[in-house]
Inverse folding.
């Protein structure tokens, strides 16, 4: 018994492997999507206390394959034991990440504008942390890539400002 649960909701595919020991290489999952899928949540990431067994990360899409389980298409993925993954159609993730700084946020910290602020991007890979900095232009940062990362807003004197994020709809 493989102890795997797969289900679709909208554009998302949820894949859970509850087996305490068995990992599955090339596990094929039927989907309705005829385009590449990307992993948007991987519980095996280090930030969730996982073992980081998925070397493909979130940068590589899973290409669509032939149908399976009464669905017209499918994808294959590696499912480590005791993990979950959420897949999303690649087209839903296009356009990058947009970060806007509202006047009310600036006012909280007695800042007149976003000038001098930078966006600090923390990427975790193979247990190591890498910091990338992006400058604000016109009060916004536009990242053209899809990152698996944590963001902080940092002042010119390297003070990290607590912030929250919301998704554009």
């Amino acid at each position: 018994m493989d102890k795997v649960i797969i289900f679709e909701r909208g554009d998302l595919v949820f894949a859970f492997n509850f087996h305490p020991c068995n990992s599955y290489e090339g596990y094929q999952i039927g989907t309705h999507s005829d385009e590449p899928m990307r992993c948007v949540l991987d519980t095996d990431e280090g930030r969730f206390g996982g073992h980081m067994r998925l070397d493909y990360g979130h940068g590589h899409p899973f290409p669509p394959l032939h149908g399976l389980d009464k669905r017209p298409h499918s994808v294959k993925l590696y499912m480590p034991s005791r993990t979950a993954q959420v897949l999303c159609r690649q087209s839903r993730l296009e356009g990058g990440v947009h970060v806007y700084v509202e006047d009310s946020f600036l006012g909280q910290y007695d800042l007149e504008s976003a000038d001098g602020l930078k966006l600090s991007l923390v990427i975790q890979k193979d247990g190591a942390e890498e910091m990338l900095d992006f400058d604000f232009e016109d009060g916004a940062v536009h990242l053209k890539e899809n990152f698996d990362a944590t963001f902080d807003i940092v002042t010119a004197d390297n003070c990290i400002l607590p912030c929250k994020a919301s998704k554009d709809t």
